Automatic annotation (TrEMBL):
The keyword Membrane does not apply. InterPro entries: Peripla_BP_I (IPR028082), SBP_2_dom (IPR025997). This is Ribose transport system substrate-binding protein. It comes from Algoriphagus chordae. GO terms for molecular function: carbohydrate binding. PROSITE patterns: PROKAR_LIPOPROTEIN. Gene3D superfamilies: 3.40.50.2300. Its main location: other. It is found in: Cell envelope. GO terms for cellular component: cell envelope. The keyword Signal applies. It comes from the Bacteria. Pfam families: Peripla_BP_4.
Length: 319
């Protein structure tokens, strides 16, 4: 019995030392700024650059440290970012998911680590993982675009739809909103529906291929502005830019300019700065003790066309 006493004492001393170290680290962290990770699906799209930079800059304005992580539309890389954020002691995550289903596990990992996650623009297919999801009302925005599309095409003619990422709920919310209107007009015929992953170059290639089979289309509805610009480039190259009307979604800088120049017909103006600032503000409220956040917070989308474009600025306002 006497033989085990020194070991017990040593274990007790070791446990006390670890406990003291953890308490010291916690105490030291309490005197430091909160750390916020801004994890976005891709920085290859200017819209997401605005979202990420606004979120990080506003977090800094609120007194936090902020770091941007680019997932490059890869859920595995996104997982690495979450693990890094958790192990590095980040206190909150402002998150733009890569995939509505594939990103759920990452959010749950953060929740288990007691780190709040505020989704920005893109949602995940779970209502018990993220602390809150601040989302553009893509469906309603595309209902408005659908009505304008029907009007400009005079309720008849062949058209094309170019979809975004198939794993992103925004892709289908936009498509469903658009079709909730357009499908009521039987003389409007969709001759092709292909995805281009929200990528400008892919959309240009898709449009080039479609034009070879369907040279007589009257309109193109694209799930984001990058794809709208890619489709327009293909139409210019084919000498059809004057015959085919292009509609986008986002409110990106180059499309706003193209609408002013009467090249693109319309877009759905999202407000990434507002979304990003709201997410950062929610993080502050969480740090101050709030826990009862709405699971989904819709942000209005407004249609911009050649008649009202001068009332808007690229990517909307952050007010």
């Amino acid at each position: 019995m006497t033989y085990f006493k020194p070991i017990k004492i040593l274990c007790l001393l070791l446990f006390t030392a670890i406990l003291f170290s953890c308490q010291k680290q916690k105490s030291e962290k309490q005197g430091q700024p909160k750390k916020v990770a801004v994890i976005v699906s891709s920085l290859n799209n200017p819209w997401f650059v605005v979202l990420a930079e606004t979120a990080a800059n506003h977090a800094i304005e609120l007194g936090f440290e902020a770091t941007i992580f680019d997932s490059q539309n890869n859920t595995a890389l996104e997982t690495d970012h979450f693990e890094n954020a958790i192990s590095s002691g980040y206190d909150a995550i402002l998150f733009n998911p890569t995939d509505a289903d594939g990103s759920i596990a990452n959010v749950r990992i953060a929740k288990k680590a007691e780190i709040p996650v505020f989704c920005m623009d893109r949602e995940i297919n779970a209502t018990d993982a993220a602390t809150s999801q601040i989302l553009s009302d893509s469906y309603a925005g595309c209902v408005a675009i659908g009505k304008y599309f029907v009007e400009k095409l005079n309720k008849s003619g062949k058209y094309v739809e170019i979809l975004g990422l198939v794993g992103d709920n925004n892709t289908w919310s936009r498509s469903k909103g658009f079709h909730s209107v357009v499908d009521n007009y039987p003389e409007l015929q969709m001759v092709a529906q292909q995805n281009a992953d929200f990528d400008r170059n892919k959309a240009m290639e898709v449009m080039e291929s479609i034009l070879q089979v369907h040279p007589d289309i009257k309109g193109v509805f694209c799930g984001n502005d990058g794809m709208a610009m890619g489709a327009y480039q293909a139409l210019v190259a084919a000498g059809k830019a004057e015959q085919v009307m292009v509609f986008g979604f986002d409110g990106a800088s180059d499309v706003i300019t193209s609408i002013e120049q009467k090249k693109i017909l319309a877009t759905g103006m999202q407000f990434p700065k507002l979304i990003a600032r709201t997410a950062a503000n929610y993080a502050l409220e969480y740090f101050n003790g709030k826990r009862d956040f709405a699971q989904k917070v819709p942000v209005t989308v407004e249609m911009v066309n050649q008649e009202n474009v001068h009332d808007y600025e690229a990517y909307g306002s952050d007010e």
